[in-house]
Each structure stands twice: as structure tokens, then as C-alpha cells.
TrEMBL record:
Keywords on record: Kinase, Transferase
Name assigned to this protein: Dihydroxyacetone kinase subunit L
Short name of any one Pfam family annotated for the protein: Dak2
GO BP terms in the entry: glycerol catabolic process
UniProt gene name: dhaL
SUPFAM superfamilies per UniProt: DhaL-like (SSF101473)
Domain DhaL: 7-209
Length: 218
């Protein structure tokens, strides 16, 4: 199971990288309205670095927790901006949690989403409504916890997670930024979707597609 799980996570990070790269121009355009116009490039570089490091691992021997630990170090080394420490902490939290359950069961998948949310929140100290990536990650994690509590199957769980993330990301257009570079704009940040929330949706969609296709643990 651990070999299958490790390969599943390797595929997941590949899909995330491909999806982010395909959307990097849109993400940078979103960032250009309220930030430095480099979010798409930064995220693409981060996940390319993750996959370069994962390619060095023997997935037949690696554990899922090792995949996330490797991803954390690689992302942080590649991305020096604030996004780097946020996702590095998210991946480290997921890695630590996976040491108690390496199965990648639906309950384990829900745990990964919630731990990633916790890592981002722990590092960034943000809350829902700040107009950040947490406006996608917090509702996604709540949906994951709810799905776990109600023992939803993989497809229903991930659709629930993604719907919540998309709704949360879209809601940032009506928010005034309270954190990050966008906070300097004040009311001028209204009317723009937060690029970090938008990229969170891309990540979660790639995660959903991977786990639904694999039906790991279902």
C-alpha cells in the first residue's frame, strides 16, 4: 500500500505542477491587479522544484510522509517569497500527520487537506476574510472534516472540498485585503480575486483528480 500511496502522491505533485504551469499567466495577471504580478511564475517554479526532487526518490521504497517532507524542503528552497514558507509549512504538517497513517484512505486524504490548512494558517497567522489563500483553504478543510465525519466516499468528499474552495476563492473579489502586499491598496483591492486563493483551487483540483482517479483507499 505504501508503494501505491507514494506513487499516487508523486502523480499528484506532477498534476499540480502541470496545472499551475498552464494557469501561471492567469495567476500572474490576478496578482498584477493587487500585488507584484509574479504569483503564477513563483508557484510554477516551486512545484517544478518539488517534482525535480521527487524524481530522485525511489517511490517503491518511499513513504507518503517522505513525499510531503521532500516537497516541503524543495518548495522552500525554490520560493523565497512569502508563499514559500506557507506551503513548506503546509507540506511539513501533512508529512507529520501522515506518519500516523500512511494509507491515503479517504479519511487520511481529508486529514491532509486539514493539516495543509493548519500549516498555512500557523505560518501566516491569517483568518477567513483576510483575502488570502486561506479563503479557499479554510472552507476546503471544513468540507474535508465534514466529509470525514459523515464517511463520504472519495468522489463526494473531493467534490465537496473543491466546491467549498471555489466558492471561497470567488468570494475574495468582494473583500478588502487585510494581509500581504494587497493590504496596501485598501479599498482598491476590491473587485479582484486573490491570486493565492485562485492557485489553491488549482492545487485542490489536481489533488481531487488524482485521488478520484486512483480511488486510493476507497
Amino acid at each position: 500500500m505504501s508503494e501505491k500511496a507514494a506513487r499516487c502522491l508523486g502523480t499528484m505533485f506532477q498534476r499540480i505542477s502541470i496545472a499551475i504551469n498552464a494557469e501561471k499567466d492567469r495567476l500572474s495577471e490576478l496578482d498584477g491587479a493587487i500585488g507584484d504580478a509574479d504569483h503564477g511564475i513563483t508557484m510554477a517554479l516551486g512545484f517544478m522544484a518539488v517534482n525535480a526532487e521527487l524524481a530522485k526518490l525511489d517511490l517503491a521504497r518511499a513513504l507518503p510522509s517522505e513525499i510531503f517532507s521532500t516537497a516541503a524542503s524543495a518548495f522552500l528552497d525554490a520560493v523565497g517569497a512569502s508563499t514559500g514558507p506557507l506551503y513548506a509549512t503546509a507540506f511539513r504538517r501533512a508529512s507529520q500527520a501522515l506518519k500516523t497513517d500512511e494509507s491515503l484512505s479517504p479519511a487520511c486524504q481529508a486529514m491532509i487537506v486539514d493539516e495543509m490548512r493548519a500549516g498555512i494558517q500557523q505560518r501566516g497567522k491569517g483568518q477567513r476574510g483576510d483575502k488570502t489563500m486561506l479563503d479557499a483553504w479554510i472552507p476546503a478543510a471544513e468540507a474535508a472534516v465534514d466529509a470525514k465525519a459523515h464517511s463520504r466516499d472519495v468522489i463526494a468528499m473531493w467534490n465537496h472540498i473543491l466546491d467549498a474552495a471555489e466558492t471561497g476563492a470567488n468570494s475574495t473579489s468582494s473583500m478588502v485585503a487585510a494581509r500581504g502586499r494587497a493590504a496596501r491598496l485598501g479599498e482598491r483591492s476590491l473587485g479582484h480575486i486573490d491570486p493565492g486563493a485562485a492557485s489553491a483551487v488549482i492545487i485542490l483540483r489536481a489533488m481531487r483528480d488524482t485521488f478520484v482517479d486512483g480511488r486510493t483507499g476507497s
